[in-house]
Amino acid sequence: DAGVTQSPTHLIKTRGQQVTLRCSPKSGHDTVSWYQQALGQGPQFIFQYYEEEERQRGNFPDRFSGHQFPNYSSELNVNALLLGDSALYLCASSYNVGGPDTQYFGPGTRLTVL
Amino acid sequence: AQSVTQLGSHVSVSEGALVLLRCNYSSSVPPYLFWYVQYPNQGLQLLLKYTSAATLVKGINGFEAEFKKSETSFHLTKPSAHMSDAAEYFCAVSVSGSGNTGKLIFGQGTTLQVKP
């Protein structure tokens, strides 16, 4: 049983560029959440997707957007990259059983903005 | 609003010694509480979770945590540290009840160093 997978593992971009990160959830999971983890910090919630819609959003600007596909996989898009967007981006999947289920995390995508 | 405070950003123990990592939470409604571990250059792995069943929760790799409502704490312990326990540990809270999306709020993390 494959766990949560993310691609790419590493990415280097320059300021002002746009980036797309991808996540495939654990088999049987229908909910995907994205987190940003800056160096030396705990993960910060960006947003969550369920039934192809953004269900909840954290305190992140509109430059951060996402999408969920019918197969439950998800993308995180960041526009107009800033140096401060450099971080580990974590995807977590869970099964919405009528209440919160445990979130399982992928290995993350390390984004470096130069 | 919910929040998590992890006391001590860095904890150092000798191999075989007791591990105690402290976590205090703030929540206006009954919380779900989690401990995750992160090894270098990896994602987060769930150690254990509390979801209003038994207050003493046993997890993987010999770790356990006790939910104490009166102290708003959820400290993580392991009787005997192993070198492989060296990692970053995160305490997290989410809110129970209908409509909860399971959004996790994390503490700042505690780095556990295990000395031979």
Structure report:
The complex is a heterodimer of chains A (114) and B (116). With 114 residues, chain A is mostly beta strands. In chain A, the strands form 2 sheets. In chain A, strands 2, 4, 5, 6, 9, 10 and 11 form a 7-stranded mixed β-sheet that branches. In chain A, strands 1-3-8-7 form a 4-stranded antiparallel β-sheet, with no helix packed on it. Chain A has strands at 5-7, 10-13, 19-24, 31-37, 44-50, 53-57, 64-68, 74-78, 87-94, 104-105, 109-113. Chain A is built from no helices and 11 strands. Chain B is mainly beta. Helix content of chain B is 0%, strand content 55%. In chain B, strands 2, 4, 5, 9, 10 and 11 form a 6-stranded mixed β-sheet that branches. In chain B, strands 1-3-8-7-6 form a 5-stranded antiparallel β-sheet, with no helix packed on it. Chain B is globular and about 40 Å long. The chains are: A mainly beta (114), B mainly beta (116). Chains A and B meet through strand 4, strand 5, strand 9 and strand 10 of A and strand 4, strand 5, strand 9 and strand 10 of B.
Which short descriptors sum up this protein?
heterodimer; A: mainly beta; 11 strands; 0% helix; B: 116 residues; mainly beta; 6-stranded mixed sheet
Based on CA atoms alone, the radius of gyration of chain A comes out at 13 Å
**How much of the sequence of chain B is in beta strands?**
over 45%
**End-to-end Cα distance of chain B:** 41 Å
Count of DSSP-assigned helices of chain B? 0
Low-confidence stretches of chain A: none
Average pLDDT taken over every residue of chain B: 91
The SSE string of chain B, one letter per element, is: EEEEEEEEEEE
Question: Which SSEs are present, and which pair or pack?
Answer:
The complex is a heterodimer of chains A (114) and B (116).
Chain A: E1 5-7, E2 10-13, E3 19-24, E4 31-37, E5 44-50, E6 53-57, E7 64-68, E8 74-78, E9 87-94, E10 104-105, E11 109-113
Parallel strand pairs in A: 2-11
Antiparallel strand pairs in A: 1-3, 3-8, 4-5, 4-9, 5-6, 7-8, 9-10, 9-11
Chain B: E1 3-7, E2 10-14, E3 19-26, E4 31-38, E5 44-50, E6 56-58, E7 64-68, E8 73-78, E9 87-95, E10 105-106, E11 110-115
Parallel strand pairs in B: 2-11
Antiparallel strand pairs in B: 1-3, 3-8, 4-5, 4-9, 6-7, 7-8, 9-10, 9-11
